[in-house]
Amino acid sequence: MAWIGERDLGTKAVSAAAPAMVTLRIDGQDVTMPEGTSIMRAAALVGTDIPKLCATDTLEAFGSCRLCLVEIEGRAGYPASCTTPVADGMVVRTQTDRLAKLRRGVMELYISDHPLDCLTCSANGDCELQDQAGAVGLRDVRYGYEGLNHLVAEKDESNPYFTFDPAKCIVCSRCVRACDEIQGTFALTIEGSGFASKVAASQDDTFLASECVSCGACVQACPTSALIEKSVIAQGTPDKAVVTTCAYCGVGCTFRAEMRGEQLVRMVPWKDGKANHGHSCVKGRFAWGYANHRDRILKPMIRASVEDPWREVSWDEAIAHTAGEFRRIQAKYGKDSVGGITSSRCTNEETFLVQKLIRQGFGNNNVDTCARVCHSPTGYGLKTTFGTSAGTQDFDSVAHADVIMVIGANPTDGHPVFASRMKQRLREGAKLIVIDPRRIDLVRTPHVAATHHLPLRPGTNVAVLTAIAHVVVTEGLADEAFVRERCDWSEFEDWAAFVAQPQRSPEATEALTGVPAADLRAAARLFATGGNGAIYYGLGVTEHSQGSSTVMAIANLAMATGNIGREGVGVNPLRGQNNVQGACDMGSFPHEYSGYRHVSDAATRAMFERAWGVTLDAEPGLRIPNMLDAATDGTFKALFIQGEDILQSDPNTHHVAAGLAAMECVVVQDLFLNETANYAHVFLPGSTFLEKDGTFTNAERRIQRVRKVMAPLNGYGDWEIVQLVANAIGLDWTYTHPSEIMDEIAALTPTFATVSYEALDRLGSMQWPATEAASEGTPTMHVDQFVRGKGHFVVTDYIPTDEKTGPRFPLLLTTGRILSQYNVGAQTRRTDNIAWHPEDRLEIHPHDAENRGIRDGDWVSLRSRAGETTLRALITERVAPGIVYTTFHHPATQANVITTDYSDWATNCPEYKVTAVQVAISNGPSDWQQTYQAQTERSRRILPEAAE
Amino acid sequence: MSTTDHLVYMANQIARELGSQCRDRPVTATRDHLRQFWDPRMRQAIVAYLDGGGEHLSDTARDAVALLRETAERAD
Ligand code: SF4
Ligand code: SF4
Ligand code: SF4
Ligand code: FES
Fold first, then answer.
1. Measured between alpha carbons, how far is residue A224 from residues A168, A538, A690 in Å?
2. Which of A366, A493, A499, A626 best tests the B interface by mutation, with the highest count of B CBs <10 A?
3. What pLDDT digit, counting tens, does each position of A753-792 carry?
4. What is the ipTM of this complex?
């Protein structure tokens, strides 16, 4: 179904950078348009909507319905305006008696086998067939209404979010083309011909059972109610819309939240969104029902001991209690005994306030963020090599890439909307190199096949990347001119000599990495010589003991091959959470202020001291794992956690639990009683992204507005709650709107200098750095020079992890996530997305399964040096022999009971991607799972607020 | 792992990486890293460990912690 109230120009804009212009006459009006524009679009741009059914401006023109006929002087017949491009001197008429008659004839045919139950149809008032019947002036149908129709055809209601009603289908193929062109899943076809033709999913399966990934693109494209959101059927068509940003992943899709009164009816991806260009995935598009889930906690709660049930209290009492506890604990144990954790799920403004609360209010730097466990090595690695802690490109850049290297990322699951863009480019002919232990979907998906898949052993990233560099250097494929001009030459020479050593060669490292040397050589040659080379990487790079070194090895490779500083190239971290980039930018790390400036930098500190009126601590604070260590040692006693579930998301659950249990006051601010809340003394109910204003920053450094569409059910936006706490400990904060917080951020952060809500509303979005020199932002970084001046090559020696397999733990476990679920799953598990992933499964290769007598679906125990859990097995060749894989979306699985304390050398980012394990048949949940379940049930008891 | 074991492990890990990345100055690079990223109580703990013999510290890590102690003393 089309976008409520948005113009559809019929065909896409011309994509050439500087197209030639042509002038033509449409209905007597002279019009100048870029060459290649369709007549339909040209007419629409000057205000004339030519009737159409099979065309829509998100898809290539198809020319099947023949409703859009026009007359062109000097041309015979009636060409379709959607497929006919404009030409110089052309004279076009869009409305003549003859055209009207022809169009009515076409329309009659459509209408004659369409069930005319418009008044009760869920798309009534928002149906293009209805609109076009009106537009062509259809008053009567000569064939009668009693003709054949498809009313007996059964509706497909299998997808939890939308229905397919074949009776309403006009077989325009828009859905099929949306699935092919936009999403790239190729799940739909038109089967049969003539009256019998119909839309089919996969091999005529139900939508749910088919390859469909529920992105919703076909639903948007459908002109009738044949494909329609169940929420529209239930609630009626929306009547207004607010543009906002998805709160799930780092792609940062923007959506129109379409409302009916105060009720959210549906989320429709925004065509003008610069990150998503009108596309979405199942999470942002459909999985927002958690906002109203009955598990949501709406009243503040406190308790003296984590053994007690929760007691609902007023906001005043909760805030006063929190402030009192932090002050008491600091008085007793010292100023450094408390700290906080900011959230990559909250807005920039909220994150900024939490670190401000800690720095200004608590007087220390004990602030950290969930990026610790995902992309902290990106921050370290890219800052060291390039001078700034962020990806170098925008997403659109991928359209100019010739060779795409994907390392340790699974974009079709983790970053689906970007993956669709990448697949479009791959279908156009760009080459793909995948470096990943698993055969991820991208390796072979409809019309896309990786040229090279290097299935390395987990933990050997640095060896593989160095071997690639070895080939580049020893075969003379480095871009010497680029390096001489842009990088430190002597450092390059030093690095080149290192990577050229014979022991770094693909042949020498093959035995340890498991990557066939010939494949690696071919991949290296392709990357170095195939034109624009772009590297995209994810947590399979960072979550290792050498995570930071791997990021630097990637940066080295990009510099050595001259793939930095223009469109189509670059080093692109695919960020996990919606605002992980923003949380890092906002000074959430214990050693940095906003904009990545070290706390020991006197000038920066002085600036903050002047603004905040306090003396600030010049020493770095504790990182999350260090906080937990300090807690077990008794020097760290209170933690304020906003929107984070460290008990489920952080490694070595037993250690996290022990740390939390040792604290005197743990405050959790969240939507739900998460796992961490089992150890909390104060629970402050949080608000969803629909209930507050703010900004998120996506993986392309793009700052986008989050707009409030409904009042917070819990009473306050999260930023307001932090302000209440701050004022209760004696600060004097007076923000009345998050825009004022952004103004403060801009004033204190040079890379945000020109960012304001006014500028964001005007421009739609901005990519930092946004400075006087680039006041609207910077899509591509390091264009003329690196932020640090000369690019810095770093020698990255491969050092094997200490987490090793052996007779007791012979398999390597690696972890990840899947499309329909999001991280710890707190949100997605509370939506119908559960239809796609009701539980975490352990993927195991058939050989390893057979050796252990494991059949598909069996319960198995998964044991490491850190702990044991159980889950069910999924036998698949996606994983290599010797490797097992699982997701961590369900608390019952407790996958992190297994993961160890090993972490990245520079940042303590946990080594999630390598754990030595043993797998065996089991008959049910482990002891820990059972004990934990009982504890959780005990901990979640709530006593209602006493009546006044 | 106890906190001290953990700190020793991390110091050795940092020293080993920086040993290859900054071959001409591994000790100062390691010291700088500890100063930039470790909170004071962690630095005190590792210095105390060195004072107690520092048995499990690698050579580079040991020298770096000694340098850290010196720098701290000079700053006092
Ligand atoms: S929802 Fe997306 S994947 Fe599924 S059929 Fe429609 S376009 Fe294809
Ligand atoms: S389901 Fe909708 S988009 Fe697909 S062919 Fe039918 S009418 Fe067209
Ligand atoms: S989860 Fe990510 S890809 Fe999906 S809609 Fe949201 S921002 Fe877009
Ligand atoms: S809209 Fe042009 S042929 Fe259908």
1. 7, 39, 28
2. A626
3. 999 999 999 999 999 999 999 989 999 989 888 888 889 9
4. 0.91
Residue A33: strand, helix, or coil = strand
- Tracing tokens 């998964």 back to the chain, one arrives at A862
Q: What is the rounded CA–CA span in Å between residue A591 and residue A597?
A: 8
Whether the CB of B76 is below 8 Å from some CB of chain A: the reply is: no
- Determine the atom of ligand 4 nearest the C-alpha atom of A40: 2
Instruction: Please provide the average confidence, as pLDDT, over all residues in chain A.
Output: 90
Half-sphere exposure of A217 (CA within 13 A, CB side): 33
Domain A312-374+580-697+704-738 maps to which CATH number in 2.40.50.1020, 1.10.287.130, 3.40.50.740, 3.40.50.150? 3.40.50.740
Which CATH fold would you assign to the domain A811-938? Barwin-like endoglucanases (2.40.40)
Q: Which residues of B touch A795 (CB under 8 A)?
A: 20-21, 23
Q: How far is A602 from chain B (nearest CA, A)?
A: 14
State what percent of residues in chain A have pLDDT above 90: 65
Note whether A549 contacts B17, CB cutoff 8 Å: yes
CATH of span A385-567: 3.40.228.10
Q: For residue A644, what are its two tokens?
A: 């984070």
Query: Which burial class, exposed, middle or buried, applies to A101 when counting CB atoms under 10 A from its CB (0-12, 13-18, 19+)?
Result: exposed
Ligand 1 pocket: which of A1, A162, A181, A188 to mutate (most atoms within 8 A of CB): A188
Q: What is the pLDDT of residue A5?
A: 63
Selected residues 20-49 of chain B with any CB under 8 Å from a CB in chain A: 20-21, 23, 33, 35-42
What is the A168 CA–ligand 2 centroid distance (Å)?
8
| Dist CA A695 CA A349 (whole Å) | 7
The response to whether residue A282 sits with its C-beta less than 6 Å from ligand 1 reads: no
CA dihedral A281, A376, A534, A416 (to 10 degrees): -10
Helix (H, G, I), strand (E, B) or coil at A456: coil
Domain with CATH 3.40.228.10 in chain A: 385-567
CA-proximal residue: ligand 2, atom 7 (nearest) = A169
Please choose, from the candidates A504, A511, A565, the residue with its C-alpha nearest in 3D space to the C-alpha of residue A534.
A565
Kindly report, residue by residue over A341-383, the tens digit of the pLDDT.
Answer: 999 889 999 999 999 999 999 999 999 998 777 778 888 899 9
Which pTM value belongs to this model? 0.92
Tokens matching residue A589: 């790390």
Q: Which ligand is nearest to the CA of A61?
A: 4
Sheet holding A638-642, edge to edge: A367-369, A338-342, A638-642, A665-670, A682-685, A301-302, A310-312, A942-943
Q: Three-state secondary structure along A357-414?
A: HHHHHHCCCCEEEHHHHCCHHHHHHHHHHCCCCCCCCCHHHHHHCCEEEEECCCHHHH
Which residues of A lie closer than 8 Å to B, measured between beta carbons? 336, 365-366, 545-546, 549, 590-591, 598, 600, 619-623, 626, 629-630, 632-633, 635, 794-797, 799, 901, 903, 905-908
CA-based nearest residue in chain B for residue A909: B10
Q: Are residues A367 and A336 in contact, defined by beta-carbon separation less than 8 angstroms? A: no
- Alpha helices (H) in A822-903, listed in sequence order: 846-851
A622/B39 touch (CB, cutoff 8 Å), yes or no: yes
- A742: Cβ contacts below 8 Å, ≥ 6 apart: A348, A349, A695, A755, A756, A757
Say which residues have a Cβ less than 8 Å from residue A53's Cβ, sequence separation at least 6. A65, A67, A110, A128, A129, A132, A170, A172, A223
Residue A220 has pLDDT above 50, yes or no: yes
Positions of CATH 3.40.50.740 in chain A: 312-374+580-697+704-738
Question: What are residue A476's phi and psi, to 5 degrees?
Answer: 70, 30
Give me the residue spans of the domains in chain B: 3-75
E strand spans, B1-76? none
